[in-house]
Amino acid sequence: MSTAHPPVGPRGRTDPRGRDLVLAMIVGGVAAIAANVAIGAVARSVGASSDFSPLAPAELVVPTIFGTVVGAVGWFVIARRVARPWAVFRVAAPAVVLVSLIPDVIMWVGGSEPGTSAGAVIALMLTHLATGVVLVAVFQHVMPVDRSQS
Predict the structure, then answer these.
(1) Judging by beta carbons within 10 Å of its beta carbon (0-12, 13-18, 19+), is residue 68 exposed, middle or buried?
(2) How far apart are CA 139 and CA 36, in angstroms?
(3) ∠ Cα 22 29 1 (to 5°)
(4) Burial, 36: exposed, middle or buried (Cβ in 10 Å; 0-12, 13-18, 19+)?
(5) Greatest CA span in the chain, whole angstroms?
(6) What is d(CA 106, CA 102) in angstroms, rounded to the nearest whole number?
(7) Within a 10 A sphere around the Cβ of 112, how many other Cβ atoms?
(8) Who contacts 14 (Cβ-Cβ below 8 Å, separation ≥6)?
(9) Are 57 and 33 in contact (CB under 8 A)?
(10) What values do phi and psi take at 44, rounded to 5?
(11) Cα angle at 79 between 78 and 80, to 5 degrees?
């Protein structure tokens, strides 16, 4: 086992490595999928229609994996290239979650999905929020950035 320190980037901080990115995707993806499937199950148990397919476990997996991969790559690139990455993350993470809610609002207003109800769409929105919270926590642990310069 090596005792070598991780590489320090040009701005005097530890830069994440490729293996950190892969680990963040795996841990973040599994944790976010678990959270989202739990939200879907609770929503259905309290009245969301089983006809509302976006809350079905199989329907939650692919978008969660997509969000995890995009988020992890974005975090990785920003952590390695930006002088004050935490300042960027503090704005970008909530902005991305808010933008991800737009299709849900359109679905709610349009009622385009069978079984659409306020409760079902709110539960779906909670999956976006849960994914964001879980991923930021995992990414900060696996690919940490300096928060002191935010």
Answers:
(1) buried
(2) 18
(3) 35
(4) buried
(5) 57
(6) 6
(7) 9
(8) 5, 6, 7, 8, 144
(9) no
(10) -70, -35
(11) 90
Question: For residue 68, which of 28, 37, 104, 95 has the smallest C-alpha distance?
Answer: 28
Residue of 14, 148, 147, 6 lying closest to 80 (CA atoms)? 14
Q: What is the number of residues in the chain?
A: 150
For residue 98, which amino acid is it? L
Chain position carrying tokens 């385009």: 112
Evaluate if residue 149 carries a pLDDT over 90: no
- The pLDDT value recorded for residue 150 is 58
CB-CB neighbours of 2 under 10 Å: 4
Contact 98, 108 (CB under 8 A): no
Quote the tokens at residue 35. 């959270």
Q: Which residue has the tokens 């079902």?
A: 120
Model-level pTM greater than 0.90? no
Mean pLDDT of the chain: 90
Structure tokens of 91?
């704005």
CA 37, CA 57: separation in Å to the nearest integer?
5
Q: Cβ atoms within 10 A of the Cβ of 149, count? A: 12
